[in-house]
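Discrete fold record:
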Amino acid sequence: MYTTAQALRCFQLCCDLTSKYCSIDLVTIDMRTGHVIILSKEDINIEIDSNGDWRFV
């Protein structure tokens, strides 16, 4: 399950991506780690941990 910090960061990052005309292909939760994954275009993969910290993968 996702945390509130993950949900807020996910919304913020999705807004940032779409404001730069990047389409979002997939948003999902990795059930093994509990991280939220955002896939955008071919080369933008973002992982959000439970604290809301994110990184490119």
